[in-house]
What does this fold into?
Amino acid sequence: MTTPSACPAEAAAPRRRVLVWDLPVRLFHWLAVACFAGAWLTAESERWRVVHVSLGYSLAGLVAFRLLWGLVGTRHARFASFVRAPSAAWRYLASLARGRPEHHAGHNPAGALAIVALLALALLTTATGWAHYQQLGGDWLAELHEGAAATMLALVLLHVAGVVVGSLAHRENLVRAMFTGRKSAG
It folds into this structure.
């Protein structure tokens, strides 16, 4: 369960590191990064079309796995343990702005909303890409596919900025945590 740290003394005390992102979550994350980056880089090339489509299908499979793992996986992997209402995200962002950020063992509420949006955009992007590749729609489908991918890229960049801000605000390396799975418990 994610609980914010309210006591300044707790914030100064050394925090114990616990496993919050299990191996399946970490593998999903980095494989999804590779698939999206590769698909983005090969999007405009006819020569690399098969690679682009294969990476898109792989991303769709990864998202399907993550959705299933979000329902039946380990404690911190389950959506029920970290997805909160938008008001919790606003509260978290306000705590960042005040310079006293709430600490969460797993994803903070703003990060959780970004993850849900990224998963939804990945599904939209891959579904429209598949439909376009199957020639099920016209140019509007290609435009929707490109728009969804561009929106996803913007959200990825926002996610990376959030990781940098969160790392600085909480004085912990969140990128390293996504490799090791271990993060400060609070």
About this structure: Residues 1-11 have pLDDT under 50 and may be disordered. The two ends are 11 Å apart (CA to CA).
